[in-house]
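Objective 1b of the project was to move from sequence-level analysis to a structural picture of ligand recognition. The entry below was assembled by the postdoctoral researcher (A.K.) and checked by the PI before modelling. It contains the amino acid sequence of the target and the SMILES of the bound compound, zinc ion.
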Amino acid sequence: MSGIGKAEQSVRQKVRICKLKKDGELEEVERREQNPIVFCSKCKAKADDPSSLCNPRALKAVKR
Ligand SMILES: [Zn+2]
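Corresponding predicted holo structure:
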């Protein structure tokens, strides 16, 4: 049941976009910012997964 693919995936998910941005991995950052639903209120990075950010906030603000 265990597979190499799964391990690879979890490693990938652990890397935060915030860190990628810091490290200058802009290509990877761009790839993950294509369909953002959250952003980091600390680093201003965007992501499609809240767990990719150190301080995630929903992108779609509730309008009043
Ligand atoms: Zn951050």
